[in-house]
Specification:
Blueprint (H helix, E strand, L loop, with lengths): L2 E5 L3 H13 L3 E5 L2 H11 L3 E4 L9 H24 L1
Parallel strand pairs: 1-2, 1-3
Length: about 80
């Protein structure tokens, strides 16, 4: 099942987003801070990250954003290579 990572420190927002996402057939993975979001991103490899950049605990969202961009570019290169073959 395709996973979507929700990184937010507000449980109400997490509940609302999770309900909508799961109704559409996706699995949700939840992180309450930037450190946990980084760990889950690397472990779960979600297809999408919904990221609250105003989480008070830390500023690791920048690192997560950079890793997500690198991961996305890597996937695009793999798809391009497959199409050329």
């Amino acid at each position: 099942m395709k996973k979507i990572l929700i990184a937010d420190d507000n449980e109400d927002i997490i509940d609302i987003l999770s309900n909508y996402i799961e109704r559409e057939g996706y699995e949700t993975v939840v992180a309450m801070d930037g450190e946990e979001a980084l760990q889950l991103f690397e472990k779960e490899q979600p297809i999408l990250v919904l990221l609250d950049i105003m989480m008070p605990k830390d500023m690791r969202y920048v690192e997560l954003f950079e890793k997500a961009q690198t991961f996305q570019l890597s996937l695009l290169r793999q798809e391009e290579k497959t199409l050329r073959e």
